[in-house]
């Protein structure tokens, strides 16, 4: 009886509007990061299962694309209401499988709901253009049509928000959507699937299929998938983009980041310190928009480092189930150990470890690591060069604005950046000079609202469009231009010349 009670729960696929056990015979462990315990076994799809899922989605897409825009909008409105009503339930799933604290989980869900808000306006978003009388009796107009079956491959760090970046627009545009969530925290996607069904989405239009590299490759190679959206690390984003485009797909692949915050000598030090702490350690640093490097210009460095360090002892780190905690564990034991390794290597390479997260102890076997602050970091150190993706903040001292800007622009990544200053001219010059896709002015995490689009530059983005917002509508549709003429038949004649508009 005890063995039965403690056996990890199966986590199945969502196919045809219902939970469907996998047939591959393969599965992966899903941990509770706060305890280190295995709490689920997620099915891992085979190539054959992916093919069956795509065939079902293809059939569903044929009828879904004919559903009127008003009806699609109605479903999106109902879905939005259900998400709003069930925020706490979804947040508890995020805390259980990802480890983030409840307040952080609620924040993630709120940003995801913004994207559903945007998609509710699909009748307006899909309006085309019309030109009457471009030539005698000739009118030209454009329409936007869905692609068919599209897929999303999403990361572990935002198991609700990032899928909603993709799902809302893709479905509202008339596509069928196949989601391959991270196998580390897959249950949020199944919860979303149930809400979509309750909102009235026809069965088969939304599919969740779990898997590893075999499933990813099958999605990228399948001839009936028209487009793939991805968020994750840069090496995998590059792979997704190359393999997907090789197989004729439209691909948007968002990669990694090394986000810098440039603090000028005239900045409000307390405001900058608050922002640095919030942006570096929120979500345990496991977000592509985290500030991982503070560039302290001139003599602001000593005061800024002291101000940041003074705030760290008050941060409460522990299980996300405790509302008093502000930061939870990392996603896995292996990742925690990897992040901790950067603290040691930075010290070995000459950095000053102002606060060492390894020194903080925690009860139990959870994947916890305290917050760390490294000063006098230089660009040749591993902690600077690599995307750590954990609660480690590096401070680099630079003599001038120009020196700080050069570090930002020379970095291989170009996801997000921020400047803290009281000088409007300097801020305006910074937004012009920096080679980064998302810029904050006295805003440490400049994630765009849902009616703009999210995405970086350089090695942070592969593809021509950013995620969600107007670019999301563009990505999930293709434009068709119609030229029509209804002339008097008596005026018809043969003309072998190139069409004229006069």
From TrEMBL:
Spell out the CDD domains in the cross-references: ALDH_F6_MMSDH
Annotated keywords: NAD, Oxidoreductase
UniProt cross-references to InterPro entries, sorted A to Z: Ald_DH/histidinol_DH, Ald_DH_C, Ald_DH_CS_CYS, Ald_DH_N, Aldehyde_DH_dom, MeMal-semiAld_DH
Top EC group: oxidoreductase
This protein's source sits in the domain of life called: Bacteria
Give the E.C. number(s): 1.2.1.27
Q: Ranges for the Aldehyde dehydrogenase domain?
A: 23-482
Q: What is this protein called?
A: methylmalonate-semialdehyde dehydrogenase (CoA acylating)
């Amino acid at each position: 009886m005890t063995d039965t009670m403690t056996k990890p729960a199966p986590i199945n696929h969502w196919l045809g509007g219902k939970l469907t056990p996998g047939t591959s015979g393969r599965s992966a462990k899903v941990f509770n990061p706060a305890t280190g315990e295995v709490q689920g076994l997620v099915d891992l799809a085979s190539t054959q299962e992916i093919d069956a899922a795509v065939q079902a989605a293809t059939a569903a897409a044929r009828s879904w694309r004919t559903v009127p825009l008003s009806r699609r909008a109605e479903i999106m409105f109902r879905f939005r209401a259900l998400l709003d009503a069930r925020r706490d339930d979804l947040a508890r799933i995020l805390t259980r499988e990802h480890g983030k604290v409840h307040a952080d989980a609620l924040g993630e869900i709120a940003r995801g709901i913004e994207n559903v808000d945007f998609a509710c306006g699909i009748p307006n978003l899909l309006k085309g253009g019309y030109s009457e009388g471009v030539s005698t009796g000739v009118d030209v107009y454009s329409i936007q049509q869905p692609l068919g079956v599209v897929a999303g491959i999403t990361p572990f760090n935002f198991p609700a928000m990032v899928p909603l970046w993709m799902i809302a627009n893709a479905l509202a545009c008339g596509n069928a959507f196949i989601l391959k969530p991270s196998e580390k925290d897959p249950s949020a996607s199944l919860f979303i699937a149930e809400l979509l069904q309750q909102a009235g989405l026809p069965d088969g239009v939304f599919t969740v299929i779990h898997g590893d590299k075999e499933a990813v490759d099958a999605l990228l190679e399948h001839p009936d998938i028209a487009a793939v959206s991805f968020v994750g690390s840069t090496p995998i984003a590059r792979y997704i983009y190359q393999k997907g485009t090789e197989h004729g797909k439209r691909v948007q692949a968002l990669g990694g980041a090394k986000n810098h915050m440039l603090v000028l000598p005239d900045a409000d030090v307390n405001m900058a310190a608050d922002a640095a702490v919030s942006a570096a350690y929120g979500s345990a640093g496991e977000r592509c928009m985290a500030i991982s490097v503070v560039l302290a210009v001139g003599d602001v460095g000593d005061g800024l480092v002291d101000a940041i360090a003074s705030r760290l002892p008050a941060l409460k780190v522990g299980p996300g189930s405790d509302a008093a905690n502000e930061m939870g564990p990392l996603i896995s034991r292996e990742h925690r150990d990897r992040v901790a390794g950067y603290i040691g290597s930075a010290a070995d390479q000459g950095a000053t470890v102002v606060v060492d997260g390894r020194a903080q102890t925690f009860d139990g076997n959870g994947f916890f690591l305290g917050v760390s602050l490294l000063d006098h970091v230089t660009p040749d150190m591993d902690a600077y060069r690599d995307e750590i993706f954990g609660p480690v903040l590096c401070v680099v001292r630079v003599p001038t604005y120009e020196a700080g800007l050069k570090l930002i622009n020379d970095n291989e990544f170009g996801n997000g950046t921020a400047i803290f200053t009281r000088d409007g001219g300097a801020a305006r010059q910074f937004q012009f000079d920096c080679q980064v896709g998302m810029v904050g002015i006295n805003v440490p995490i400049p994630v765009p609202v849902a009616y703009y689009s999210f995405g970086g530059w350089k090695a942070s983005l592969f593809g021509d469009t950013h995620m969600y917002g107007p670019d999301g509508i563009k990505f999930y549709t293709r434009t068709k231009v119609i030229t029509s003429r209804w002339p008097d038949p008596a005026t018809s004649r043969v003309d072998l010349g190139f069409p004229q508009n006069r």
